[in-house]
Design brief:
Layout (H helix, E strand, L loop, with lengths): L10 H13 L1 H37 L1 H4 L6 H9 L20 E4 L2 E3 L2 H10 L7 E5 L5 H9 L2 E6 L2 H13 L5 E5 L12 E6 L8 H5 L1 E11 L6 E8 L5 E9 L12
Parallel strand pairs: 3-4, 3-6, 4-5, 6-7
Antiparallel strand pairs: 1-2, 7-8, 8-9
Helix pairs in contact: 1-2, 2-4, 2-5, 4-6
This protein binds S-adenosyl-L-homocysteine.
Subcellular location: Cytoplasm
Function: Catalyzes the methyl esterification of L-isoaspartyl residues in peptides and proteins that result from spontaneous decomposition of normal L-aspartyl and L-asparaginyl residues. It plays a role in the repair and/or degradation of damaged proteins.
EC number: 2.1.1.77
């Protein structure tokens, strides 16, 4: 989809369409809605491009710790395309493309765009990947994953957040994201094994069910550490023979991974 350059080459068709639409009262409403949509899309397009530049600057600045100085073409394209302003409340729409986390209700946050990009990058997904996300939240990270993977399975423990993310993702046309309301500590066994697993809430330890549901050769990216204190973004690599290697990448601050039934 080309944003900001609406249909210039289809002038004749557009003129006929406009004539028909302007003649009907319903058409006037539709035309207004269409032009508002176009206008806001191009306005947000500039902001999104600026956000991506900041993400790339953060990637370069943290290369020493992360081992990645930039984004792969697929992740870059995903960051350039997902409309972050559609994942936040109307009251936050003007700051939707700032490179920082934002509240999404229920004490939860949509992650900082740099962290979303970095975590996606660190997964090193193969072609046609099936990926699991724990912590759907707003659905933004799931949407980014939807651009780089074939199927995205996302588990959210808070039903109202999960349901509204599901509705939002459908409305935006993300047909390859599947949302389940459950305790993500246990992963999503029916669809395992996964080519990558991403946890977007901080866990005091790495949940063993997630390690089991990881394909040999695949990676799990998870913030590990105590709630409300500094955690470490950690990459676990499961080798072909099943051996796990872990690497601490960056200090981060995530909301805690909560447990159903108050389990630790
Ligand atoms: N990925 C989200 C941000 C998530 S914030 C986004 O892009 O917007 C962390 C999310 O993890 C919250 O929505 C929280 O409710 C959810 N969460 C916390 N513990 C969980 C658990 N055990 N299982 C599934 N989701 C969990």
């Amino acid at each position: 989809m080309v944003r900001g350059h609406p249909c210039r080459r289809r002038g004749t068709t557009i003129h006929w369409l406009l004539a028909v639409m302007v003649l009907s009262p319903l058409g006037v409403g539709a035309l207004r809605a269409w032009s508002m949509q176009r206008g806001s899309d191009s306005r947000f397009f500039q902001a999104r491009e600026a956000m991506v530049r900041e993400v790339l600057a953060d990637m370069a600045a943290t290369a020493g710790e992360t081992g990645r100085g930039t984004l792969s073409a697929a992740v870059l394209e995903a960051m350039r395309r997902v409309p972050r302003h559609r994942f936040v409340a109307d009251t936050l729409i003007e700051v939707a493309y700032e490179n920082r986390p934002l509240p999404i209700g229920y004490g939860q946050t949509i992650s900082q765009p740099f962290i979303v990009a970095l975590m996606t990058e660190l997964l090193d997904l193969p072609e046609n990947a099936k990926v699991l996300e724990i912590g759907t939240g707003s659905g933004y990270q799931a949407a980014v994953l939807a651009h780089v993977a074939k199927e995205v399975y996302s588990v959210e423990i808070l039903a109202p957040l999960g349901r509204s993310a599901e509705t939002r993702l459908k409305a935006l046309g993300y047909t390859n994201v599947h949302v389940k309301i459950d305790d993500g500590y246990y992963g999503w066994k029916e669809h395992a094994p996964f080519d990558g697993i991403l946890v977007t809430a901080a866990a005091p330890h790495i949940p063993p069910p997630l390690l089991q549901q990881l394909k040999p050769g695949a990676k799990l990216v998870i913030p590990v550490g105590p709630p409300f204190l500094t955690q470490f973004l950690t990459v676990v690599h499961k080798s072909e023979d099943g051996t796990m290697t872990t690497r601490q990448v960056l200090p981060v601050a995530f909301v805690p991974l909560t447990r159903s039934g108050g389990r630790p």
